[in-house]
User: Fold this.
Amino acid sequence: MKKTILITGGAGFIGSALIRYLLAETPHSVINVDKLTYAGNLQSLAEVADHPRYHFAQVDICDRPALDILFYQYQPDWIMHLAAESHVDRSIDGPAAFIQTNIVGTYTLLESARHYLAGLKPALQRAFRFHHISTDEVFGDLEGSTDLFTENTPYAPSSPYSASKASSDHLVRAWHRTYGLPVVITNCSNNYGPYHFPEKLIPLVISNALAGKALPVYGKGEQIRDWLYVEDHARALYQVVSGGTVGETYNIGGHNEVKNISVVEQICDLLDELAPAAFCQLSEFSSYRQQIRFVTDRPGHDQRYAIDASKIQRELQWQPQETFASGLRKTVLWYLNNRQWWQPLVDSVTAKAPAKGHQ
Assistant:
């Protein structure tokens, strides 16, 4: 059956990928609710802006009256909550915005959804879902271990960002336990792919490399992350909201554990192949690897994340379609072919506050 899906943070990286997927691959209608902070970019949705099943509302999720109006106006069947401040470095420099959006905003959205749900007919109440999208960073650090994060791993967040996301996860579970709100939760590994805001590791390396700038790598680059192609993630999110069990949590990972230094080197090698330095007027370099620079590690930097995604594969028959090699090639090619999307963002970030690092 056709559903109306209210998506918060739909102008962001993962949210826009999800919206493009839903409109291309499903019959559902999408309501994109986004405040349009620095990381929200409607250009990421230009191809669907005029789609008859797409609607946009510029609303802050902390604004309860505005949310109530949206619920009344659009009568959503499902909520997919992605709106969040998500940059670790920014959370260290200014945690207040993360507390406000990730904790207060989630609370406000939960209360608006709870009020809306109470007024629905029983059949619609049973079909309603509140899908909260979170991160594997809530689990903390797997340094020195070969373990994987499972859905039962205890929470041990390290940064203001991950602590705020852990708090939002707990709120969602509490609203399910206390008020019976029908929720599902997902915790994903590091996403990458097209339309990624250029302060994150992979787009930062690509844009800096093409500009002849240093490629900053924290510490020795030994940090390990599990990389998930964003379009694989979008498919997984739909599988969970449409088929997941109420009250359950599903980990979503790419089965791609890679050290940060290896990620940077692989990008450099792809750029050497696809955009030789001479073409970019950087003839002083024989390889983009020569631009790599190691910088002081950030405070509290987790060394390893790794997801056990066997539950979603077993119960919902999802698994990633992209390997890291195939997904990274697609990503580099997209950035080479879509400079008009990312160059203004790079210029804006540089003008306001040059990026210190990534992720």
